[in-house]
Amino acid sequence: MSRGGRPDLASKDSLRAINAATILIMGDKDSKVVIDLNKKALKELKNARGKKLIMIPRAGHLFDEPGSIEMVGQLTLDWFKNQM
């Protein structure tokens, strides 16, 4: 699980070696550059089970908007439950 992270900083080989369930969570107000980099990293996660990128509406990079970090927690919990 990556919340507002930079998985694109990992090597392509490292991303391709991941076979665990993987979720990337970003705020939709994050910079377009960082959003695009996460989308690119998601494509490199070729072996990851259930890989997914989720955008939290009206949230920025720090998820300090009211209710946004709680939404991250709930979406993450629901997603991991579905991976079992």
Describe the structure.
By secondary structure, the chain is α/β, with parallel strands linked by helices. The protein has one domain (2-83): Rossmann fold (3-Layer(aba) Sandwich), CATH 3.40.50.1820. Helix content is 42%, strand content 14%. It has a three-stranded parallel β-sheet, with helices on both faces. Helix 1 (12-17) links the parallel strand 1 and strand 2 (23-27). The longest helix has 16 residues, at 68-83. The radius of gyration is 13 Å and the shape is flat. The two termini are 15 Å apart. The model has no long low-confidence stretch (mean pLDDT 94).
Helix and strand topology:
Elements: E1 2-3, H1 12-17, E2 23-27, H2 32-44, E3 52-56, H3 68-83
Parallel strand pairs: 1-2, 2-3
The amount of beta strand, in percent, is: 5-15%
Overall number of strands:
3
Q: Tell me, what's the shape?
A: flat
- Name the CATH superfamily assignment: Alpha/Beta hydrolase fold, catalytic domain
Span from first to last CA? 15 Å
The CATH level-2 architecture is identified as: 3-Layer(aba) Sandwich
Largest sheet: 3 strands, parallel
Quick summary:
It contains three helices and three strands; from the N terminus they run βαβαβα. With 84 residues, it is α/β, with parallel strands linked by helices.
List the main descriptive attributes of the protein structure presented here.
84 residues; alpha/beta; Rossmann fold; 3 helices
